[in-house]
Structures are given as structure tokens and as C-alpha cells.
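Before the break, one more example. Copy the sequence into your notebook; we will annotate it together after we see the structure.
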Amino acid sequence: MLKPLLVGLLALWVLAGCAAPAEHAAPLRQALLGLGDRAAEQVREVDALQPFEQQVLLLAAPEVDAALGLGAERVRESLTRALLAVSPGPQVIDWRSGMDGEAGPHQWRLASRLEATGPRLALSDRELLPYRLTLTLQRPGGGEAVWQTRLEGAFDATAL
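Here is what the structure looks like once it is written out:
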């Protein structure tokens, strides 16, 4: 009788341990989703990208400041999801080096840089880490930027 009870408690303890990292990741996921949504709204309003649903965005790997403690893939995933969620929206493709061949009239390269803009700010209940996200739109193959914007804010450091 005691042995099945111990096995059941052990199983619950293991399952609870597996769930803990997902709960910890939720604030980070929410922070990045919010940032991605803000970025997608800015991109959606660019005059050169109208009509938006006819465009192909080649999303370059983001440059991410190591001080933020975020991986470039997490930031790219957030931007990709947000851009794909816009309805009607563009096609979104991960850009890789070597894709700078002949670009069609509806292809655009979207580069992003996320950087810390200062030290952690201590509040009474948490710490904030200020950031700046710079988005740059240009034709594949280089040339002048057609559009650029900066989004500023602060992440809750406990989420990072």
C-alpha cells in the first residue's frame, strides 16, 4: 500500500519539476511576443510595403546584444510570428547569406538589432533592462535603407 503511494508521489514530483521551466519561460515569451507585435505594426505601416499582403520579407538573423541574455533565434522567432500574424500579411522567409541574387519587385530584406541601452534599473519590486530595437528595410543585395525605425522599452529582468 505504501509503495504505490510513494511511486505516485514521485511521479507527481517529477511532473511538477518538468512544468517549472515552462512557467519560468512564460514571462520571457510574453515580453518577446509584445516586442514582436510592436515591430510588426511598425513594418505594416511602411508606405513602400503597400499592399502589404503582396510583399515577401526576407528576415535576416537579428543582432542581439549579449548583455540582454537573449538568443538571436528567440528574437527571430518572435518577429517571424508577429509578422505572420498580421492579416492580411506578407510572406516571411528567413534570410541567409547567399540569398542576395536577383530580387523581385516585392522582395525586401528586414534586418533587426536589439541592444541594451543602459544598466538594469532597480525598482522596489523588480529590475528593468532598457532596450532599443532597430529595424531596417532594404532591397536584397544591399544599397540604401528604404526605411528604418527604433523601438525603445524595457524588459522585466526577472523574465530574462
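The CA atoms of residues 19 and 62 lie 29 Å apart. The first helix runs from residue 2 to 44. Try to locate both features in your own notes.
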